[in-house]
Design brief:
It contains 16 helices and twelve strands. By secondary structure, the chain is an alpha/beta fold. The longest helix has 16 residues, at about 125-140.
Length: about 350
């Protein structure tokens, strides 16, 4: 459990850098509740507005409400003083003073790998994110991402099918964003964890997401960028990863695709080009006895091959498959199910299917 004083500091308008200055100055952070205005002014980096906000916060009752909600909602907290604060995260510049956790906090100390990308991906991107996350998670690694729409969501869903995942939020744990991912967040918390450095009811402010991204990369041993525009949050995460001395991987895409420009830039800058999970495990020097070998060829029956060809690399709706194949609906349903069980296609959204063997 985090100290009351660090939770108090985290509720203030001060960012991690100024809180770090307070922590390094005081012999005991609990002194923050009693220091005079003059004493506070002696702490490096603190401005008059910061001092005023701290004094006002003492009398606001917000700390008591935060602590009550933490207890009521069964939320775990860990601060920079805890022995099980994530070791890798502690190494980054200005690590978050407090982490709020719903789920299994022990996962934060495991072997974590991040998968990130565009909020408006292609079917190729969605399929790749889900497939890579699923395969990596099946090896025992924990997938980290940001619960955003698109690639992040696909990565979380893929990981949940075969292993565990951690979602890092750009808002408080009691204010899940985006709203449509509330159910996904609940599923993640049951077997993995959702994490935030922000107070419980903090909203999804624009400036929060770069801070969220530094945690995603900071927790992980490596970061895979699936699809990213030339200017995007995924590229910010990748650049944080480079600053934090993490390995960066990127999946190439079509040369004329806007969401592949970012990944191609990363590859030109030295990111590892990835077309199989083995590229990642080899680079990170991970050895798994149960890894086996990836076999991307599978024998398809005549009707299965027809359906697989119609789905193509861009995916297809069930109605389109029926119209083009001229196969009866009952047989189409069976073929679709068999192909899903064989692991060669995925249902990306209702009645829309895409290949996993790209």
């Amino acid at each position: 459990m985090a100290k009351k004083s660090t939770i108090f500091l985290n509720l203030s308008i001060l960012g991690p850098k100024k809180i770090e200055s307070i922590v390094s100055t005081l012999s005991d952070t609990e002194d923050i509740f009693n220091l005079s205005q003059n004493a506070l002014s002696q702490i490096p980096l603190l401005e008059n507005k910061d001092i005023e906000s701290l004094i006002n916060l003492r009398n606001s009752g917000l700390l008591e409400k935060e602590l009550e909600c933490i207890k009521k909602e069964n939320i775990d907290t860990v601060d920079i003083f805890d022995s099980d604060y994530p070791a890798l995260l502690k190494e980054i510049a200005h690590p978050p003073p407090v982490l709020y956790i719903k789920g299994d906090r022990k996962l934060l100390g495991g072997y974590l790998f991040a998968v990130v990308g565009s909020r408006i991906p292609t079917v190729y991107g969605l399929t790749s994110a889900k497939e890579f996350a699923m395969r990596i998670a099946s090896l025992g690694l924990v997938i980290v991402s940001g619960l955003a729409r698109g690639i992040d969501s696909a990565a979380h869903k893929g990981a949940l099918e075969r292993g565990k995942t951690i979602a890092v939020l750009g808002s408080g744990l009691m204010n899940i964003y985006p709203k449509e991912n509330a159910g996904l967040a609940e599923s993640i918390a049951k077997s993995g964890a959702i994490v935030s450095e922000f107070p419980l009811y903090e909203g999804p402010k624009k400036e929060n997401f770069p801070r969220r991204n530094r945690i995603v990369s900071g927790l992980a041993r490596g970061v895979l960028v699936v699809e990213a525009a030339e200017r995007s949050g995924a590229l910010i995460t990748a650049h944080y990863a480079l600053e934090q001395n993490r390995e960066v991987f990127a999946i190439p895409g079509k040369i004329d695709s806007p969401v592949s420009r970012g990944t191609h830039i990363l590859i030109k800058e030295g990111a590892k080009l990835v077309d199989s999970v083995k590229d990642i495990t080899d680079e990170l020097n991970i050895k798994f006895e149960n890894m086996g070998t990836e076999n991307n060829t599978i024998a398809l029956k005549d009707d299965e091959a027809v359906v697989f060809d119609i789905i193509g690399s861009d995916g297809a709706y069930l109605e389109e498959i029926m119209l083009k194949s001229k196969i009866s609906q009952s047989l189409i349903n069976k073929i679709i199910l068999d192909l899903q069980l064989s692991g060669v296609i995925l249902e990306i959204k209702p009645s829309f299917f895409a290949r996993t063997k790209l």
